[in-house]
Amino acid sequence: MALSSGSAVAHAGASVFAVDEPANPWFTWAYVRDNSGDLQRALEEHVVLTVQAVALGLLIAFPLALLAHRYRRLAAPVLGITGVLYTIPSLALFAFITPISFFGLRQRTVLVGLVIYALLILVRNILAGLEGVPADVREAAQGMGYGRARMLWNVELPVAAPAIMAGIRVATVSTVALVTVGVIVGYGGLGGLILRGFQNNFYRAEIVTASLLTVALGLTFDLLLAGATRLVTPWARGR
Amino acid sequence: MGLLGDAFVWLNDPLNWQGRGGVPFLTYEHLYISFLAVALAALVAMPTALLLGHTGRGGGLTVAVTNVSRAIPTLALLTVFAATSIGFGNRATILALAVFAVPPLLTNTYVGIRGVDPDIVEAARGMGLSERSILLRVELPLSVPLIAAGVRTAAVQVVATATLAALVGGGGLGTIINEGFGQQDRPQILAGGLLVAFLALLTEGALALVQRQVTPGRERRRLLPAARRSSDAVGAGAVEATWADEEDDRQTVAVP
Fold first, then answer.
1. Under CATH, which number does the domain A44-234 receive?
2. Residue predicted with more confidence, A30 or A6
């Protein structure tokens, strides 16, 4: 940066009358070096929000999906409500939550919104996975004397595992992207840097670095979860 | 509830319904941006998907495009475009939104074409139809229901995300929410949220009707419940194949 800004000054001195734009590169390592503290803080905030949101989403989604799976009559309303909620734009959702969240913390506003979206993706995928267990597999387990709990744990969940893991992956990657919107309430991880760059006269290096980091974070999570999928479904490996 | 009441007071204020900052104009702007974005995306995605679907290539590509696009935050792309020579405002917004409308259109059209019964295609070929005719007169009409599902998914998603344009100087209904946050005006925030949510649900409902209209009766039973799921499927993931494993077509094809 020092070099390029130096040359920019020299350049500006050479042509005083021309309206010279200052150098505004798309990416410089100098930016990364000078702002490593900010980047690290934003990245940390981003990771923490994502992990919290997906974990909480899973905690709520699992019982919901199991209920909908067990009592068929609940499936339609659960899917219907989640579908309507999923249609609501994220900014509007934050708008709904913010005024209501008297508990005040901005972080919690963002987290509630993220959990809701993650929840919707997770419920659907878990339910789809459970519904996808072939009837004859279930029958065979019944014939072998499996009760409900054992059937769920030993038969249905393992068979549904790939679908459930796929749901977790999609939910995680979407959440990473969605965290940035939290900037509207001042708590958006790397989204904060993206918008700061925009407001600071299109500070390109800041915008691009934060954007790339967000995408890289999403892809990293995706790869990690893909690895985890192989770990929990060892039988699917050889295929 | 007081706050909700205040939001309705905001909505009832005639001042908020006038001029360039008024609800009708912003709604129009919102829909105009969304429409152009979807049209632009369709212009790129449809021919590509038709060709890929007809030749049977590129299944992995469509899956990869869908996955990568999911990892890119809309806000990032909006901001990056705003920082280029395109400038900020509606043009950058339309481009950014179009990028996000491509994956559902691409996937659904591709899956639709691939899903056409191979016997029918064989029969058409046997009757001497050219490849071009097979694509345009056999495969395309048969995959209209799935394509319609893709358009619906894309459009609803675009209408929803167009809200974010307000963060980077664009127009549309998001402006109301954004201004509300700027002025800490809670009733306005809530009123804006209600308007945007209403518009998104309305779009979803209207396009669901269109989709029903273009789906032949005998297909409805088979497709619509699946398509209903497909709106989250594409948004939320039934295209579950990934970078690493595009192990079989079944996954991509099974879920539109």
1. 1.10.3720.10
2. A30
